[in-house]
Amino acid sequence: MRIISGLYKSRKIVAPKNLPVRPTTDMAKESLFNIINNHFYFDEISVIDLFAGTGNISYEFASRGTEQITCVDQDHGCVKFINQTADAFDMPLQVIKSDVFKFLEKSSLQADIIFADPPYNFTVELFAKIPELVFKNNLLLEDGILIIEHSKHTDLSHLENFDYSKSYGGNMFSFFEKQ
């Protein structure tokens, strides 16, 4: 994987092969960040990266100037890799080892953008728990967005606070906002 833009543009990051992850493709990530760039100034926002995996999305935010980034993942190897990479690049990432649903239930941390990249094989009920907990616990700041990455075969448009979705290859990003 590589960082698309910003301070660390074109830097390649190689994750260990034994991590249980499916990093967002560069094409999908570039398209996603073009959308985000039209709505936010990266150096003025806070981000929570759920199911952070390799940290791919968090590194992109950090490279573009975001200084308040929280990564949440329950896998020890992923947490260790994100911490090592953040240290190597001197990125301002706070990494939390936790089950994402437990984190969402207990956290009072708010952000402008909450990005979730859960396993594609989640049931629709598990996908639905993400926006349910985010909005129930008021984890988005005013005018904030929740973005869930999922397979194009999963439809989340019926969920409360759904706004729109964009498809890039086999990847889909669904955007949720307070109504």
Automatic annotation (TrEMBL):
A Pfam match: Cons_hypoth95
SUPFAM superfamilies linked to this entry: S-adenosyl-L-methionine-dependent methyltransferases
Keywords annotated in UniProt: Methyltransferase, Transferase
Signal sequence region: none
Lineage: superkingdom: Bacteria
Organism of this sequence: Postechiella marina
Membrane-spanning ranges: none
Gene, per the UniProt record: rsmD
Alphabetized Gene3D superfamilies for the sequence: Vaccinia Virus protein VP39
Matches recorded under InterPro entries: DNA_methylase_N6_adenine_CS (IPR002052), RNA_MeTrfase_RsmD (IPR004398), SAM-dependent_MTases_sf (IPR029063)
Name of the protein in question: 16S rRNA (Guanine(966)-N(2))-methyltransferase RsmD
